[in-house]
Amino acid sequence: MKQRDIQRTEHALRCWEFFHCHPDARKKCLLAEVEEWRCWLIDIACCRMDPKTPYPLSVKKVFCKTCVQGCPAAMRRHLTHGLGAGLLLAVLWIGAVSAASQTGQKDTVTARAVYAVDYTNRKVLFARNQRMKLYPASTVKLMTALVVLDRQDLKDSVVVSSRAVNVEPTRAGLTRGASYSVADLLEVLLATSANDAGVALAESVAGSESEFAVLMNRKAKEIGMKDSYFANATGLPDSRQVTSAYDMSILTRTAFSHPFVKKVMTKKSITIRGSDGKKITRRNHNKLLWRLDDPQVLGKTGYTRSAGHCYAGIAYYDDRRVSVVILKSRKPWTDIYALLGVRQKKARR
Question: What is the pLDDT of residues 21-66, one digit of tens each?
């Protein structure tokens, strides 16, 4: 490539960076007609404006009027270098539309607090009220699982108490007095949000749920959670029990780094059997297992009236991992689609 073409390409990229970062420029471009888009793209690909000159706010004035009318050679160069410039224009146009589309999608997110991070490179993709303290609902169960995994073997046996059996729904339907493996109870706890399993595990580890909460708060401090306080193992309403989207992101990454947790979260249904011989089958609450293929999104759901819809999970791409946390959402699945810039896959007929 000639030095002149290299300089022109570098300038086009500088102009693209300005468009991508400047909200006023984005807004004006979105309001422009197709022809104005085309004109603007030709301008940034072909015009030799002095890169040291400050860019005015008006996109039409800078990129259309100034460049084309003030620099007729720009259009001639575009015609002369039709193929090379044309390819560059196509790439820039697609990128511009994509960026504008994703910005619009994220504006529709209903969650009160959001924190989405590409933790492969630690880049924050979207943040809203990420340090606001809100109720976590059943996303708490990720912490419950971590504490249990720290202190019990998966093959250990747990006898279910009457208190565990009678806890508020959601329940797996465990039998009072029957014994289950720690692994089975963790599976129904994580995938199907079984509160009876949560209480049974808490009592097995610490003797009572209140004592187990002490261990949860100790673990939270250990992994760097500063906005959170845990009062029970289930996420059922308690005015003291709060977290932030930022803290929940820390918890999510820590929990999903455990092979057992990740494996459980990939299962669409869970089947366990206790010492009484009763077979229990429950469906995973994470609807994204059916609705998305790429990326694969694994996560813990939660809902109470006071907490709204909550979700803490990880999107697994081929080359990266994106942590997504939403708290107090009205439309959790739509929010996640918007944050990841994906669409629900079509149902098979």
Answer: 444 444 444 434 333 334 334 344 333 334 433 433 333 333 433 3
In 3D, which of 65, 54, 47 has the Cα closest to residue 10?
47
* 182 Cβ contact list (under 8 Å, min separation 6): 148, 152, 153, 154, 155, 156, 157, 158, 201, 204
Kindly tell me if the per-residue pLDDT of 155 is higher than 50. yes
Distance CA 123, CA 347 (A): 33
DSSP characters for 112-166?
Answer: SEEEEEETTTTEEEEEESTT--B--GGGGHHHHHHHHHHHS-TT-EEEPPHHHHT
CATH of domain 113-340: 3.40.710.10
Structural domain boundaries in the chain: 3-106, 113-340
The rounded distance, in Å, linking the Cα atoms of 167 and 10 is 64
Q: Which amino acid is at 48?
A: R
